[in-house]
Design goal:
heterotrimer, A: about 230 residues, mainly alpha, Four Helix Bundle (Hemerythrin (Met), subunit A), extended, B: about 775 residues, 3-stranded mixed beta sheet, two-stranded antiparallel sheet, globular
């Protein structure tokens, strides 16, 4: 067993084990740490596949930025992971059958897809020669900015949209409601709501019109409960 | 054939466009421009369109056909139905017959449009009226200009629709609305016959073009139309019988005439245009158009003649006792149409068309005159409450009198020439298949002529002579004439007077040419060549050496019919010259049962009601209760909804909002699909690639942007839409070189061998 | 030399583990992490094929996948935050508004 093989099997085992740990840990922080381990192991696999640039990206983006995001969110939320008792537990056989068939289906999908791909695109034993700069930032950059320029631009736009969307979605509801209320309120109403400092001036008459409604329906202090 | 190509499409298109404009914008015109100006705009659009059609038709007929001698003008607008070998074009044609019809339709139509301006002046939905009227003109023009039976049928249905719309024009009165429905339904019965007839003809000729039908008939008795049979009769007989069923519906012959008297529910100008002058003559047109085909079926010919003759007398006797001015005219129309069918059935095609034309003139004039009277009398239609109107409406009375003289068959007036020609040919034309038909038809025709003269003058005397029998207020303040209504009357009366000179009999001094006979010669010449049983023309012993009827017979017939007409007129005068007299009542008393039957219209409507409508209603009610309510609604719709509801209740538990559950089901589904694919032995999905090394050349080298080759012309060129020079290609793309044959999208070719082996293994 | 199929087996295993996590765990955060695992598995397959062909296209696609995953994580976490504020919990089974 050569050194390369040794490294692969070692890190493959690490990846699988840490992935299992990721999905099985109860505490999300612990799970996140195990996920980082998986990412590192995967990055090593990339290196073995001569994808050096991608390995760097994997560590920078995944293990660095995204995991920080995860952990940060977990901290912010202060998640209390004491899962409630599941109500309405089905019988053991039903559960085993259900999850077993799910795993079977998932495995089947992965098997068939990978198998099809392998059959279509692989000739075992053959390994096409690679150019000296294969997988380097140079080669990848050349690809991205020639053949994939349009896709690259589209992805950048997607990221921008994701950032804005994340900000919009995650903003505090109360702030947003307050803002949207204020824009539609007369001075007197703002004063009455406690958001305007000055008493109403005599000439300031509330404009006629319907009660302002936010984009999330009527404002409520207890949150939006979906209109059940 | 000597034919010209001209854009005939304009002729029906202009009324059609005007109809659409008025339908869409009419209400808007009336609202925004005010009542007065809005009406101006609406009727100027409508009249302008018809006037254009009229002008265009006349210019084509006189310039191209008469002036330059073209035998016909055709215009293929587009290939309409193309299916396999069948090609039915949207072809319009003006030949000698269409020319006559088009001129009558557009000319009389134009006059009636003008009359309508006065008659409908106070109507609320003015625009709707003119839109329907224009739509009718378009459909009627398609009917007469269609170059194939299919296109004629399009127009045939179109005029039926417009007739329905216009009869039910005052749809807020349920009686009038149901009159419209009645007309439509009765017409549908006939139209069904037309469709079947068309199919039969198509089965033999493989085309419905009139040229093709004519060509198929050219072989005479040897034609496939005669030699092939269906149910023991020749195709020609079966098809023409079916077509004639359609004609009885459209042209109000026995037994399907009942809708026409009810159709008087529509506005009076509509009755003049549709139910007197144009639409109801479509059946006659169809028979004359297909005259070689009809001539090949002596059975149908005799049937047509007999039905026509019976209808003529039957309707005329009803007309004697009616008191509604429009009903009298309606039965008169049925009767006159009977004359036309009598002529067509006897093979006197020209006489049929001649009477069609003259009838269009004088009957339109009569209807419009009655319209003027009705308008003047506060929409009173009962002639017993009229009388003496001549003093206040001299123009109307004069034109009405002229038309009455024409329809009664007094010499010089047009009706004399046409009706005399019909009666003459009824007597002298050959009917080899049914000997004796001549005498029956002639007798019935003469009797109908007597009745016609009597009831028309009864109508005239009761309406215009004597003293006014309505209320004083109407007489003083309301009875008057309007120039816009009198003008068309005068024109039509002029035509009714002089229209007869289109076909002066040869026997009269001066030997004027029979213009219409010569004009229609190309239409009728084919059927004139048939002989033997199929012979159409003057029978042996009655013709002279020039092919004309012998002078003695002709003059005798003329004298007889004139004498009968004069008797009828004088008798009417003696009874009704000063209003309804005691003498007339005593005659009614004397005739007793006959009189009551005539007043009751021979109770045909009641018989139909008892015999057909009520059983049908009963059957409908039964099927409604049992089939519709029980089976369709109960078992069908209710059962389906119940089943779906029950299934939904079962399936509801799956839709529990649990996202993971949804995902799981999705996964299972994908697994199932893949498994089914995998289970197919011919798709080897997994396993080592058996023999054949991957053909790198067939693979698409990149998934990125690259020129994609599309067969055929494309919007874009083959070159990529941006150029970016990034050094030599070997550096850019270190993978395998692109395939030399430049087919980047093809999958790698697969070796069929392993599949075969696998099959062989799995077979035992 | 490691055969390329072994990389695919690794991808297979990671994908299965990720799918199981998505399906079995109720904590939204861990579900998101499992999704990341699945995406990583796909990336491994892409890069392995890329190596097999000596063609960098697969790596470029893997890079795009990473970018999309980043976007997905950002939006997903924002939604988690928003849900957490509204519902005070990260149990995915509580989010069953689709039912009604």
């Amino acid at each position: 067993m050569s050194g390369e093989e040794l490294i692969f099997y070692l890190f493959a085992a690490i990846a699988v084990v840490s992935a299992l740990a990721t999905v099985s840990r109860r505490n999300p922080v612990v799970a996140a740490v195990w996920l980082v381990v998986t990412f590192f192991a995967v990055a090593v696999c990339y290196l073995l596949l001569s994808a050096t640039f991608l390995a760097a990206i994997q560590i920078l983006v995944y293990a660095g930025a995204m995991m920080v995001l995860f952990v940060f969110v977990i901290m912010v939320l202060d998640v209390d992971e004491r899962g409630r008792e599941e109500h309405r537990r089905p019988t053991r056989i039903a559960r085993v059958g259900y999850y077993g068939s799910l795993l079977l289906a998932g495995g089947f999908i992965a098997w068939v897809l990978l198998g099809t791909l392998a059959r279509q695109y692989l000739n075992p034993g053959a390994d096409l020669s690679k150019t000296p700069d294969f997988g380097t930032a140079n080669a990848i950059g050349r690809e991205i900015f020639t053949d994939y320029l349009f896709a690259f631009e589209a992805i950048s736009l997607l990221l921008l949209a994701a950032v804005i969307g994340a900000v919009v979605v995650a903003r505090n509801r109360r702030d947003r409601e307050k803002d949207s209320l204020q824009t539609g309120m007369s001075h007197a109403a703002r004063h009455a709501a406690g958001v305007a400092e000055l008493p109403p001036v005599p000439g300031d008459i509330a404009p006629p019109g319907p009660t302002p409604v936010t984009d999330f329906g009527a404002p409520s202090a207890t949150g939006h409960d979906g209109g059940t | 054939m000597n034919e010209a190509n001209l854009t005939l499409g304009w002729i029906p298109l202009f009324p059609l466009v005007a109809a659409l404009v008025n339908l869409v914008f009419g209400r808007w015109f009336m609202r925004t421009l005010g009542d007065r100006l809005g009406r101006e705009v609406v009727h100027l659009i409508a009249i302008g369109a018809v006037a254009f059609s009229c002008f265009y038709t006349f210019s084509i007929v006189f310039e191209a056909m008469i002036g330059q001698g073209y035998e016909r003008v055709v215009h293929r607008i587009y290939p309409w139905i193309v299916s396999g070998e069948t090609m039915i074009g949207f072809d319009l044609m003006i030949d000698h017959l269409s020319a006559v019809m088009c001129m009558v339709v557009t000319g009389v139509g134009l006059l009636i449009h003008i009359f309508s301006v006065g008659y409908m002046a106070k109507d609320g939905s003015y625009w709707r009226y003119f839109a329907y009227l224009n739509l009718f003109m378009a459909a009627m023009l398609v009917l007469v200009m269609g170059k194939s039976l299919v296109l004629t049928f399009v127009g045939w249905e179109g005029v039926g629709l417009c007739s329905y719309l216009l009869i039910g024009y005052y749809y807020d009165e349920s009686e009038k609305a149901s009159a419209g429905r009645k007309a439509f339904i009765v017409n549908r019965i006939g139209d069904f016959g037309v469709i079947l007839g068309m199919l039969l003809i198509y089965a033999v000729t493989h085309s419905l073009d009139y040229d093709a039908i004519k060509a198929a008939c050219a072989a005479g008795p040897d034609s496939a139309l005669v030699t092939q049979t269906i149910f023991g009769m020749s195709i020609a007989t079966a098809a023409t019988m079916l077509l004639f069923v359609g004609c009885t519906g459209k042209s109000a012959q026995l037994p399907l005439y009942t809708w026409l008297p009810d159709a008087m529910a529509g506005p009076t100008p509509v009755s003049a245009l549709i139910h007197a002058a144009t639409m109801v003559t479509a059946g006659v047109y169809l028979i004359v158009r297909l005259n070689p085909l009809f001539a090949l079926s002596p059975v149908t010919m005799s049937t047509v003649a007999l039905v026509g003759a019976i209808t003529a007398l039957f309707a005329a006797t009803i007309g004697i006792t009616q008191n509604d001015i429009k009903k009298v005219l309606a039965y008169s129309t049925v009767s006159q149409l009977g004359y036309m069918f009598l002529a067509a059935g006897m093979g006197a095609w020209v006489a049929a068309v001649f009477h069609l034309v003259t009838h269009a003139f004088f009957k339109a004039c009569l209807f419009l005159g009655s319209g003027a009277v009705i308008d003047a009398c506060h929409h009173e239609q009962d002639i017993r409450k009229m009388g003496g109107l001549r003093k206040k409406m001299p123009w109307t009375a004069g034109t009405f009198l002229i038309s009455c003289l024409a329809i009664a068959g007094i010499p010089i007036f047009s009706g004399f020439f046409s009706k005399d020609e019909i009666l003459l040919h009824a007597y002298t034309n050959a009917s080899a298949w049914s000997p004796g038909l001549n005498y029956v038809a002639y007798g019935l025709g003469l009797a109908a002529a007597l009745c016609t003269a009597f009831y028309m003058f009864r109508l005239y005397f009761l309406t215009f002579e004597g003293n006014f029998r309505g209320d004083h207020h109407t007489w003083e303040h309301h009875v008057h004439e309007q120039w816009i209504m009198s003008f068309p009357l005068v024109v039509l009366a002029g035509l009714a007077t002089f229209g007869g000179f289109l076909g002066v009999p040869h026997v009269l001094p001066g030997h004027l040419p029979h213009v219409l006979d010569e004009w229609l010669h190309p239409i009728t010449q084919l059927s004139a060549t048939f002989s033997g049983e199929y012979f159409v023309g003057v029978r042996e012993g009655f013709g002279d050496e020039h092919g004309h009827v012998r002078a003695g017979v002709e003059l005798g017939g003329m004298g007889l019919s004139v004498g009968i007409a004069v008797i009828g007129i004088l008798f009417a005068r003696s009874l009704y010259a000063r209003g309804p007299s005691a003498e007339a009542a005593s005659w009614a008393q004397k005739l007793g049962g006959l009189y009551r039957a005539s007043v009751g219209k021979y109770f045909v409507d009641e018989i139909y009601d008892r015999g057909i409508v009520r059983p049908l209603r009963f059957a409908s009610a039964v099927t409604y209760q049992a089939v519709d309510q029980g089976l369709v609604d109960g078992v069908g719709v209710g059962g389906v909804s119940w089943t779906v509801g029950a299934l939904g209740n079962r399936a509801r538990i799956w839709h529990n909002g649990n996202v993971r559950r949804y995902l799981a089901v999705l996964l299972l589904g994908v697994g199932l699909v893949l498994a089914s694919v995998f289970a197919n032995p011919t798709v080897a999905v997994v396993g080592p690639n058996p023999v054949h090394p991957v053909d790198a050349g067939g693979l698409r080298p990149t998934l990125g942007a690259q020129p994609i080759h599309i067969e055929g012309p494309t919007l874009f060129t083959d070159t990529p839409w941006f150029e970016f020079d990034a050094g030599p290609a070997s550096v850019r793309r270190p993978g395998p070189p692109p395939p030399p044959d430049d087919k980047p999208l093809q999958p790698p070719p697969r070796d069929p061998k392993p599949v075969v082996e696998r099959d062989r293994k799995g077979a035992p | 030399m490691v055969p390329i199929t072994h990389f695919l087996y690794l991808a297979f295993a990671l994908f299965l583990i990720g799918a199981a996590g998505v399906l079995l765990r109720r904590n939204v955060l861990i579900v998101l992490m499992s999704v990341e695992l699945m995406l990583n598995a796909a990336n491994i397959a892409l890069v392995a094929f890329s190596r097999q062909w000596g063609n960098a296209d697969g790596q470029v696609l893997a890079m795009f996948t990473i970018a999309v995953a980043a976007a997905e994580a950002a939006v997903g976490l924002a939604i988690v935050v928003s849900i957490f504020r509204a519902r005070t919990g990260t149990d995915i089974d509580d989010l069953s508004l689709l039912r009604d």
